[in-house]
Amino acid sequence: MSVARTQAIALQGLHGAIVEVEADISDGLPGFLLIGLPDASLGEARDRVRAAAANSGCPLPSRKLTVNMSPASLRKHGSSFDLSIAVAALAAGDLVSAASIRSVVHIGELGLDGRLRPVDGILPSVLGAARAGATTVMVPSANVDEASLVPDVRVVGVASLRDAAIWHGGDFEPEAVEALTRPATEAVDEADLDLADVIGNRAAVEGMIVAASGGHHMLMVGPPGAGKTMLAARLPGLLPDLDIDQALEVSSVRSLSGLPVQALLSRRPPFESPHHSCSAAALVGGGHAIMRPGAVTRASGGVLFLDEAPEFAAAVLDGLRQPLESGSIVIQRTHGSATWPARCQLVLAANPCPCGEYGSRDVACSCSPFQRRRYLGKLSGPLIDRIDIQLRVSRIDSAQFRQATEPLGGQITTAEARSRVVAARDRQRRRWEGTPWRLNSEVPGSRLRSGDLRLATADTEVLDRALEGGALTMRGYDRVLRLAWTVADLDAAERPTREHVGAALALRRAL
Amino acid sequence: MTEDRTHSSPDRGSSPDRGSRLELGAAGEEIAAEYLRECGYRVLARNWRCPEGEIDIVVADDDWVVVVEVKTRSSHAAGHPFESVTPTKLARLRRLTGAWARENPREGSRLRVDAVAVTVAGTAPPTVEHLENVA
Lengths: 511, 135
What we know:
By secondary structure, chain A is an alpha/beta fold. Chain A has helices at residues 40-43, 45-55, 82-92, 98-102, 122-131, 144-147, 161-167, 202-214, 228-233, 235-238, 244-256, 280-284, 295-298, 314-318, 321-326, 369-377, 381-385, 398-405, 414-431, 445-448, 461-468, 474-490, 498-506, and strands at 3-12, 15-26, 31-35, 64-70, 104-106, 109-110, 116-117, 136-140, 154-158, 218-221, 271-272, 303-306, 328-333, 336-341, 345-350, 389-392. In chain A, the strands form five sheets. Chain A has a five-stranded parallel β-sheet. A four-stranded mixed β-sheet of chain A has the order 1-2-4-3. In chain A, a hairpin with a 2-residue loop joins β1 (3-12) and β2 (15-26).
């Protein structure tokens, strides 16, 4: 009878902190005390652990058992501590080796029969363990694939508490159990969404390639049926593969959100399109006792698409301003805060007016000028200001349709577009090497107007005129400059020319 | 299970096993008393009753007066004997201890409550476990 220690992980946002779990068995009437700021769901671990231990044939000693989780000031929630509590208790009772459990991080929820259930958030937990220096992590066998995505960590998968006890030197006969698994989910095949499916709208397609290259936010305004949603859904396909850190972050967020994580680390950028009825907490993250990431975090590294943007509540949309600016979101609640990444590319789609027909060639708009003004006015100035590309999308006419359905109709495929995007991003990476920026959209305007990056007056003439005439604000001026650099990068040009600046200005003509 | 008579469930008294359960409890208390004597305690009382309930055994050494709760089981199938010493029962034991001390004052002695678990499994020699100062 002694004290035994092991380790577990408490997640705060995406950050996994090591928690020491220590168990003490002392002479006293049988009891199970769980201390160290557990919440209600963790408090229930007492009963799960006792039943699971008894039913897996390695019952806890009938003595007073005290389990402490430190740091005690850190609030702990959820069921993923079950396994660490159980092995610490078994080690305190000399049923398994206390030395063996000491340096292993244990994550897993116990069923009453002693089998281990998979838990959410395995990937960020194991990442947190690895960053804290842990070398071995024990997880439920259904989580092994996900945990193995983390490099340089030995992952031990166990199906039951009995297996875990045997691995730690417990003197028990192995007993084969059917491991609990998660229902398999079908992966959505992104390859099905090809840019070549988009008929007509060459300007919009080009605009989207610019958006993908420079990481620019985008607004599309057009009548219903113009293909705004279709275009937006194809934007993630244009983005290059994520690097390993980004990919781990994307999968960590998926894991934390309870979404399935594939055995092979997905390198593709995520795509999120919340419905316009969504709340501020659903969009940016939040929650009461357990904080959950919102759509802006799930889209981090990829695309956040808000269809029918003016239908979103104004306060919800404005909640996006700060995360778009800083690339992360900090959610504060009374019992703590969580920080999540929010580096997403925002794509908004809107009808030009409530009836949707304003400006279209075939149907007359039935809205009053006031209605029209108020409709797009719902997109607040500060938000629109952050959107570099503002495009008009129109319905295609029969001539365009005929042209497109003929062979060699001139559609750009996703593969072609992506190779252009990758090349443009390479140029940006070389240019911004040694700076905190990677993409043109992240570079402040003052940098583009100074030093060696300052463009010749002859090249920016069209811009200067727009600024003087009041068609462009100073902030808008900077946005066009940024776009001009991206357009030049796509053209493999060293610096933006007059034509590139003109093309960039044309990408801001929607409103 | 002698001490549970006042709190027995309705069907308990009519159960055909009642006699053998009482015998098991009495045997357990006898084994416990013998064990405590071997440990150097003097037995002051057995099955001491008052309106609050009943104390199984009261023992004493030079410093302590000890109220002992005895739990006897023939197997651990329904859990360890100590597991049936609930907080409610401990509260009653504390009250009983006070009642004993009022009626049997002893200068210079301190009071405590112990629990003794006796397991009588078949023909094997009974095992005795003793926890001090549980309440």
